[in-house]
Specification:
Elements lengths: L6 E4 L5 H10 L8 E6 L6 H9 L3 E5 L5 H15 L6 E4 L17 H31 L11 E5 L6 H4 L8 H21 L5 E6 L16 H13 L9 E3 L4 E2 L2
Parallel strand pairs: 1-2, 1-4, 2-3, 4-5, 5-6, 6-7
Antiparallel strand pairs: 7-8
Helix pairs in contact: 1-7, 3-4, 4-6
Amino acid sequence: MALSGRSILVTGASRGIGLEFIKQLVNLPSAPEMVIAACRDPASASNLQDIAKSHSSVKVIKLDVEKDEDIESAFKETQAFVGDKGLNILVHNAGINDKADGGGIFKATRERMQRHFNVNVSGPIMVSQKFLPLMEKAASQKSSKELNSEAAIVVISSFMGSQNSTFKEGRGTSLHYKCSKTAIDMAVILMARELREAGIFVNALHPGWVRTDMGGPNAHLSQEESVSGCLQQISSASEQTNGKLVQYDGEILPY
């Protein structure tokens, strides 16, 4: 598998799925020329820094998606890295899910709800908005307006944001998390429609239930399996998956 994009930026890259994205990207047979790994605290991201030391293509930058000043500085750094060729792929992986007390209506607080929307919804939207000039540069260099991963915004979302899935039994509560994922899925639909004419692909990816700090030890998938599948879906971006919620194995999930 090869990604058509010359450059790719992954948020939340210091651990979990984000770190696994960086590990797999640098080892692809046709790896991107530039992998920009964004995280809240690069100084403490030792595993990520080790990868960067071994691969000159990896650039580590600071980005807390809740902070506008971080978004601004991350944009400037990325702009300096990619130059006139622009940024090909932006992967919004940073996210939170506070599982304390189950997260139902009896435990909801304004602060808890707002934090999930700040990170899981406003974060990806505002980062996408800021980085659009770089995405537009990448899209303008394509030979046609056909949608593909040469200019793509990908949001790591969850089937837990699907209203269809939530109606089924056994889905828990997690009101704050599920509501935030439903909201970002709507944003994906709207961005896909708005950016279509610019030739920028947009979709949401459900990585599966993954054994990470968020997913827990009983999850079905390893990080390696999940990210491998996600990269395959990014690589095969097309009109058919634009604006859709796609599972790591290619199944299009209902909103």
